[in-house]
Amino acid sequence: MAFVAGHFGEWMQGRLQPGGPVVLVTLACPAHGVSVERTGDGPLSLEGDPLVVSSAQAAHMLDKVGLPVAGRYVISADLLPGGGAGMSTAALVALARAAGCDDSAALARACLAVEGASDPLMWSTPDRLLWASRRAEILQRLDPVPACEILGGFWGPPQRTDPEDSDFPDIADLVAAWPGADLAAKADLASQSAQRCSSLRGPVDDPMPELGKRLGALGHARAHTGPARALIFAPGTVPEGAERAMTEAGLSDVLRFATGGGA
């Protein structure tokens, strides 16, 4: 059995200066991801609900990492495919690991070939990377994210990433401010990235900024493609009734998890 954790949107995502590459710092979600179990030999066969990758994608992935395009696999995803939680990348990486490949660089190249864009979930500390998602390249190693609690949910319909879509705001100043920032400052940078994305790409009625203020969150984050939304709290400070407030604001599948600080 191979398990690969997903993410829950991004701390920040955008262009590294106008015309530069699309870069991101992923918001790691250690508690939720994709499990893949190889259950037998024979022709390639996939089972699972929801099935987050197609047979053609699975075959392409196995071929790109130099493994036989064969075997029976059961795929189980914890979160919504197309939700901005990295389920497709996690599924591809878990599939390849269940088949016998654990070379992170090779997995990154293969995911890029299959999807055209990739989250950095094949690396052990994906939130410590400035990641060029359309190149599957590490541009910079970053300091650890301080321990925090995330209260998240999905706001709106699923939306798959279009690898040809590079219409994101410039976040070079946010990237420069990230190293050495404490949790409160990182949460503020995440909020700025989310707000720039919403201003450029929509939606205009995202409830998270106001909801975060009302619940005393340090900041908010979003999937810059997809409906995942998150409020960022210092450990132990999520107020009573916060999950209910998220649901009342229109978010679905509300969840809570710890991240950062080695989580």
Overview of this protein structure:
The structure is a single chain. This protein has 263 residues and is α+β, with helices and mostly antiparallel strands. The chain has 2 domains: 2-139, 2-Layer Sandwich (Ribosomal Protein S5, domain 2); 144-259, GHMP kinase, C-terminal domain (Alpha-Beta Plaits). 29% of the residues lie in helices and 31% in strands. It has 7 helices and 10 strands. The chain has helices at 55-64, 87-99, 104-115, 172-177, 183-201, 208-215, 242-248, and strands at residues 2-15, 22-43, 45-47, 70-77, 129-132, 137-141, 148-154, 219-222, 228-233, 252-259. Strand 8 and strand 9 (228-233) form a beta hairpin. Helix 1 (55-64) crosses helix 3 and helix 2 packs across helix 3. The model has no long low-confidence stretch (mean pLDDT 96). It comes from Antarctobacter heliothermus. This is Threonine kinase.
Number of domains: 2
Secondary-structure-based class equals: alpha+beta
CATH class of the largest domain: Alpha Beta
Q: If you average the pLDDT, what whole number results?
A: 96
Distance between the termini: 21 Å
